[in-house]
Every structure is written in structure tokens, then in C-alpha cells.
Specification:
This protein is α+β, with helices and mostly antiparallel strands. The chain has helices spanning about 10-20, 100-105, 130-140, 145-160, 165-175, 185-210, 215-220, 250-265, 290-300, 325-335, 345-350, 360-375, 400-405, 460-470, 475-485, 490-500, 515-524; strands spanning about 1-5, 30, 35-40, 50-55, 60, 80-85, 230, 235, 240-245, 265-270, 270-275, 280-285, 310-315, 340, 380-385, 410-415, 420-425, 435-440, 445-450, 505, 510.
Length: about 525
């Protein structure tokens, strides 16, 4: 595409070319909101670079270039870009570029000398002095006099520099290079050095743009969607997950249960499949080996070979004093599917000063862990605490919003009576969901699911019914509704769900607790 900007002489330059080469074929053209013109041609059989200033006010948009097209609005003039004549909307063909234009754009032979018209059109303000001095030095080396050098350098200054310098600067520049004789080796080395500086700056700008890795919406829509790597069905995926809850809620039993399930290929809280069983690294920073062994004996019936996939560590440097590097090194070497850090506060101890930007520091800590999780494709679970204000969900997590903003998923545990807890999950890649869990003490201790989904919201009403049946024994639905002062129809429906879940049993006289529930309450 040829971009013609009349503000920099583009109209005169383009008309001169058309006159010299008998015009161009009919093709797509548009009038820009800034008063310029875009002329489109089919892409030739060689690479076309985006370049500025093939002539004053005439640019080429090729590989890597961008163009604003109709019906866009110019940000300064607020005028529409409009098609002029042939255009894509009328399905008119796009013309081949004329041969004379292809000759200008075709790659030059290796080692071919660039002409002045092929140099970048706009010389950055920060290097224009060195560029002009380099040009003056090269002209002097060719044997030109001051009277011959000045007009050339002055023209380049006026037409090519972002901020043209005053005439006295150019005169002084030309005067300084006249101290050297044509062919002087020092003059040649200085000119070469200055020219390389200019090229280096241009290369640096190109690298900066490449480092940003910009992607168009078009390219994003065309690339195939990437699948989220789930470790636990619909619950735990690659990334950083915060597990927060008050002290003594049973968070460690939950994370130990996850470690055992992933290591052995079991199920999470009895209801969700492990999709990526394998190795688990567990940093138990607030306990010792004896305590871990005691809990494992409560959770595991007998040692199995697959438990070698679960390994524990009891020391870790502070996060930004080598700890992050240690976690990354472990992930690089062991390639675990799950890593647990219990707890966040034990990990960051020693890194936090008294004067700190709390939100920024919290975000930086979790973001660093999230980056490691993404790099090594590991589900990283960080055990944390909830705040003293209570609440539920994301708002209950201790610390600033920086913790939850940087995390990929948030799990919160809230204690309930009778060794129960409510587990809520929310995140970018999982749907909001909840589980009502119970810590089983009848055999091997561990969390198992009583309810999940929308039914968890009814857990308080269920608890009230269970406590009433524990105290009163067998009761008819109407008696239960009267005792709890609730709607009889609602209570009857809830009792049917509880019966289906095995929380209650029924007989001809009404509802009561199952025998095992009665035994458990008697032990409590």
C-alpha cells in the first residue's frame, strides 16, 4: 500500500512519479481523514518492507505495517476515511502494482549502495546531529568542498529530521569536517562510527516493539483455542490457587488429601476425578515430620508404592531471598503436577518491611508464584488465612486485594458445626461452585462431600433439622416445620433431598437420623 501525505509534499512527489511513468492501473484507493490518500496493490512475489520516505511524503506499508481503512474516523480531524472509486465493497479486483513501482520496492543486490532517497525519512531528534555529521564527513571524504557539502546537509536537515536544526549548527558542522582531507582515515572511521550509532538506535526501537509482541484481534481469533490443563475435574488447574480459611478449619487435611489423591490417582473429596495423577511436592512450613506422619496414618489405610509420588519438605528460604528460585528449581527438576506451600505467611516471612505498598507487594508475591506455575505447568496451591472480619468468598481472604487479583483461583473454607466445612471456589478458568464437606471420623479420617452446588446454600437449614432430630428423635414433617417455625411445604421438600442424600431415614412415624449418625452424635 502506498501512503501519500500531502502535509510533507506527498501529493507533489506522487504526481511527479505518475507523470514520469504514465500513471497507474485502476485499483482500490481511499481518502484519509487527514487529507491524504491510500493506494492499494496486490502483494508481489517478493517481500515488501514497510518504509518511510521513498520520496518526501510518500511511504510504503508492507510487512509488519498497519493502515487505517474506511470507515474509520481520524482522531484529530474527526473526518471519515472514505473509499474513492474502486473498493473492496463493490468486489472490484485489486490491481497489480506497476513495474516501475516494483523496481523501486524490489530488494537490492547484496552490497548495493543505498541512495539518499532510500534512507529512513524521519531522523530521530536524539541522533540527528550525529547522522548529519556522519553525512557531512562522508561527503568530505569524497572530496566535496564546503560550498558543495552545505546544501546537501541542509536539505536533509530540513526534510528528514524530526526537529530541524538552525542554519548556524549546519554551518558549524560543515566547517568542522573541512579540517580533514579527502580520504582521511580518521574522518572515515568517525563517519562510520556515527552511522552505526544511528543504525543501532533504529535497531533498538525495532527490538523494543518486538519485545511487546503485539497481536491483532484477527490473529487471536484465527489461532486455535488452548485447553485449560485441569488436574482435578472442574476444580484445580495449572496456575496459582489460594486456599484460605480460619485457623483449625482443616485446611491441612484438605491439602494432604489432595496430595494423596493426585499421587495415588484417587478422587477429590469423594466426588471429583483426578485428571492428571502424578508427583506432588509439599512444603509443610509450619509442622515437623512427626506431625506429618501422624496425619498420614489417619488418612492412609496402608502404604502403597504410589505414595512415593508425594514428597514433603520442611524448609524454604523467604520468597524474595532465594525462595522463589528454590521453588522454580524444584519444579524444573521434579516436574510435579501439584505443589503445595503451607503457608504463605511462613514463606514471605523476612521479606516484608514495615514501610511497604501492601497491595503492590501482595500482588507481586502471588504473581511471582503464578508465573512459576504457568512456566512449569504445575497446579500450585498456597495455603493462606482469612481476615478477622469474616465474610465469604474472595472478600474473606486475608491481605489486600493484591492477593486475590494475582491468583488464578480462590478457594475459601468456612467452619460449620459437627466437623463440617463449606468450601467455595471461584476463578478465571473454573465455574463458581461450593461443597459441603464433612470430616469423617468413623474410619480413616478425611474430608468427603455431603452436598455440592446450589444445595450447599441449604446446609444451614439441614443442620437445624439434624439437630432437632438428634434432640427429639422421630418427627413428622409437620412437627419439624412447627418446631423450626418454617413453611411445611418447604420443609417437606428439603426432607426429601436429605433422604436422598442419606442424611435422614424415614419410617411410618416420620423422619429420624440414621443409626451411624446417632452413634456419631453420641460420641460427640
Amino acid at each position: 500500500m502506498v501512503d501519500i501525505d500531502p502535509r510533507h509534499g506527498g501529493r507533489i512527489s506522487w504526481d511527479t512519479l505518475l507523470t514520469a511513468h504514465a500513471g497507474i492501473p485502476d485499483t482500490w484507493q481511499d481518502m484519509t481523514g487527514g487529507g491524504g490518500t491510500h493506494v492499494f496493490f496486490r502483494y508481489p512475489n517478493f517481500a515488501v518492507k514497510t518504509c518511510s520516505g521513498i520520496l518526501p511524503g510518500v511511504d510504503i506499508r508492507g510487512d509488519g505495517g498497519q493502515v487505517v481503512a474506511p470507515p474509520s474516523v481520524h482522531p484529530e480531524t474527526h473526518k471519515l476515511y472514505e473509499w474513492d472509486g474502486l473498493d473492496p465493497i463493490t468486489k472490484q479486483p485489486l490491481a497489480e502494482a506497476p513495474q516501475w513501482l516494483l523496481d523501486i520496492l524490489a530488494p537490492k543486490a547484496e552490497g548495493a549502495r543505498k541512495t539518499l532517497s532510500e534512507l529512513p525519512f524521519r531522523i530521530p531528534h536524539g541522533v540527528q546531529h550525529f547522522t548529519l555529521l556522519s553525512l557531512a564527513g562522508m561527503l568530505r571524504r569524497l572530496g566535496l568542498s564546503a560550498e558543495e557539502i552545505f546544501p546537501t546537509v541542509w536539505t536533509v536537515n530540513e526534510r528528514r529530521c524530526e526537529v530541524p536544526g538552525p542554519q548556524r549548527n549546519i554551518e558549524q558542522m560543515v566547517k568542522s569536517v573541512m579540517r580533514y582531507q579527502p580520504g582521511d582515515a580518521d574522518l572515515y572511521s568517525i563517519a562510520t562510527k556515527l552511522w552505526r550509532m544511528t543504525r543501532a538506535l533504529e535497531h533498538k526501537k525495532d527490538e523494543q516493539l518486538a519485545a511487546m509482541k503485539p497481536k491483532t484481534a484477527y490473529s487471536l481469533l484465527r489461532q486455535p483455542p488452548s485447553e485449560t490443563l485441569m488436574v482435578i475435574e472442574e476444580c484445580l488447574h495449572v496456575g496459582c490457587t489460594i486456599l484460605a480459611g480460619p485457623p483449625k478449619t482443616g485446611k491441612s487435611y484438605l491439602t494432604l488429601g489432595i496430595g494423596i489423591s493426585v499421587a495415588t490417582g484417587g478422587r477429590f473429596v469423594g466426588v471429583r476425578d483426578i485428571l492428571r495423577p502424578g508427583r506432588v511436592g509439599y512444603w509443610a512450613l509450619e509442622e515437623n515430620e512427626n506431625r506429618t506422619a501422624k496425619r498420614l496414618r489417619q488418612l492412609v489405610e496402608s502404604p502403597t508404592v504410589t505414595l512415593q509420588n508425594l514428597e514433603f519438605m520442611y524448609a524454604l528460604k523467604p520468597m524474595f531471598s532465594g525462595g522463589l528460585e528454590d521453588v522454580a528449581a524444584y519444579c524444573e527438576s521434579a516436574r510435579p503436577n501439584v505443589v503445595v506451600i503451607d503457608t504463605l505467611m511462613a514463606f514471605v516471612t523476612g521479606d516484608r518491611g514495615s514501610r511497604r505498598d501492601v497491595f503492590r507487594d501482595d500482588y507481586r508475591e502471588i504473581k511471582a508464584l503464578s508465573d512459576i506455575a504457568a512456566k512449569y505447568e504445575v497446579a500450585l496451591i498456597v495455603v493462606h488465612h482469612t481476615n478477622k472480619l469474616g465474610g465469604s468468598g474472595v472478600s474473606a481472604v486475608a491481605g489486600s486485594h493484591g492477593v486475590t487479583a494475582a491468583a488464578d483461583c480462590i478457594w475459601t473454607m468456612n467452619r460449620q458445626p459437627n466437623r463440617r466445612a463449606q468450601l467455595q471456589m471461584t476463578g478465571r478458568e473454573v465455574e463458581d461452585q461450593a461443597f459441603l464437606l464433612e470430616l469423617d471420623i468413623r474410619g480413616q479420617i478425611g474430608w468427603h462431600t455431603i452436598e455440592q452446588g446450589d444445595d450447599v446454600e441449604l446446609s444451614q437449614e439441614r443442620q437445624e433439622i439434624l439437630e432437632l432430630l438428634r434432640d427429639e428423635g422421630v418427627l413428622a414433617p409437620i412437627r419439624i416445620a412447627q418446631a423450626l417455625q418454617k413453611n411445611a411445604v418447604t420443609v417437606r421438600r428439603l426432607l426429601q433431598k436429605m433422604l436422598h442424600s442419606g442424611l435422614v431415614v424415614t419410617s411410618g412415624r416420620g423422619y429420624s437420623l440414621p443409626l451411624q449418625q446417632q452413634d456419631r452424635y453420641s460420641r460427640d
